[in-house]
Amino acid sequence: MLDYDRFATEQGKVMQRTRQDAVDGLLPEERERLILERLRAQGRVLASELAAEFQTSEHTVRRHLRELADQGHCKRVYGGALLISPAGVDASVRMHEAVDRKACLAVVAASIVRPKQIILLDTGSTNVAIAAALPDNADLTVVTNSPEACARLLNRPGFDIILVGGRIARHAAGATGATALLQIQQIKADLCFLGACAFDPDEGVAAFDAEEAELKRAMVQASSQVAIAVTSEKLMTAAPFYVAPARAVDHLFVEADVTAARRAQLAAVCDNVMVARS
Q1: Which positions fall inside the HTH deoR-type domain (predicted)?
Q2: How far is CA 132 from CA 96, 237, 244, in A?
Q3: Residue-wise pLDDT tens for the chain (278 aa)?
Q4: What values do phi and psi take at 203, rounded to 5?
Q5: Secondary structure (DSSP) of 152-204
Q6: pTM above 0.70?
Q7: Using CA atoms, how far apart are residues 124 and 130, in angstroms rounded to an integer?
Q8: Do the bridges between strand 159-163 and strand 204-207 make them parallel or antiparallel, or are there none, so unpaired?
Q9: Which of 23, 81, 205, 261 is 20 to 30 A from 267 in CA distance terms?
Q10: Angle, alpha carbons 41-210-240 (nearest 5°)
Q11: How many separate helices (H) and strands (E) can be counted in the chain?
């Protein structure tokens, strides 16, 4: 049986939104497209700033952000939204993306390693590049859950390699699950190169898989220092599973195209922000 009072209320809301959109001077689809473009350009948007720019209400902007989040474009956060990280694709794809840029990051990241250290090396295409960038005769113990990283170190002098076992997650191309977690919890590392699917100064480090996020948290706990080398498209983005706060990162390596203003935001929460220049 039709609830006429509820129907009338809903129709009234629709008419109210239509009138508001007409006053705003932009069709809802146009405004939503502009918000998505802003998200892709900046990573983070604030509802109050968008409302002022589009001369509309924050309620209207939040409605657009909810719709974009439902479509998988962003994650709602306090006051606005973050772009979803593009790193959710399988590792087999990421290994062939931005190879030169990752190699540049890897050289700078490898420069902080010191002889005799125990290094925890997480999965990720940038971390595989770091494995390749470590110098021969480095006198390091490298503990990794990444078969790809292990392959870059085999038959090279100066490395004692420990490959963490367990179920291999295809999307991450590395060991995960209970077996890998137990092994990581028994390690005391000097330095961890942590793989980050997404990084934001306020939201911290995040991952796309729950088990992977749990293993990354264990790596942070097992290490005296944490380092992350991150390509620019992962900055100011979100992923579903929380790993650690940004302040847990001791060394952050970013690309040269990161603006001075954004570097200042990152430096406010990370002890050392280093720029990889080609």
Answers
A1: 28-83
A2: 15, 27, 26
A3: 445 455 455 655 554 555 444 434 678 888 888 988 888 888 788 889 988 888 888 888 889 988 988 888 888 888 888 888 887 777 677 777 889 999 999 999 999 999 999 999 999 999 999 999 999 999 999 999 999 999 999 999 999 999 999 888 877 789 999 999 999 999 999 999 999 999 999 999 999 999 999 999 999 999 999 999 999 999 999 899 999 999 999 999 999 999 999 999 999 999 899 999 87
A4: -90, -15
A5: HHTT-TTEEEEE--SEEETTTTEEESHHHHHHHHT--EEEEE---SEEETTTE
A6: yes
A7: 10
A8: unpaired
A9: 81
A10: 25
A11: 11, 16
What are the chain's domains?
4-84 (1.10.10.10), 88-276 (3.40.50.1360)
- Contact of 48 with 79, CB cutoff 8 Å: yes
Residue with tokens 């974009």: 68
Token pair for 105:
């990051």
* Closest-CA residue to 31 (of 40, 44, 21): 21
Q: Which two tokens stand for residue 238?
A: 């979100």
